[in-house]
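Exercise 7.
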Amino acid sequence: MSESFTIIDGQQKHEILADIHGDSVRLSPEALAEHLGWTLGPEGLCQGSVCIPVRERDALIDDTGVDLAGFAGLLQRPLALDVGERAAALGISSLERRRSLTSLEAPDFTLPDLEGRLHSLSDHRGKKILLIAYASW
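Solution. The predicted structure, written as tokens, is:
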């Protein structure tokens, strides 16, 4: 039985129907293609002209769909999964993080100020900025 499931991929939030069995979350191949942009074909997991070979195809896909954790593992992307809350977040791959760190350029993001106006880091390119981050934990 499919249930509503939220996946956050970068800055995009996707509401997807998923089959949940214990700690396993499975997405239909159609949902994977429509929401995350990846298709599963004979050559492997593909997005545009980029394909990643799938060696253990039976572990990745079965009658109920594509395993979300297996998908994240193939892409070498960290996955924060909370089955109880019906939500998951896909992090960026280590290769993308390495590129960002070597370029010394901060990734763009947009946040509201106290009045609710949105501000993007890219609006201030070429200027010196002080960023202060706080977490309550």
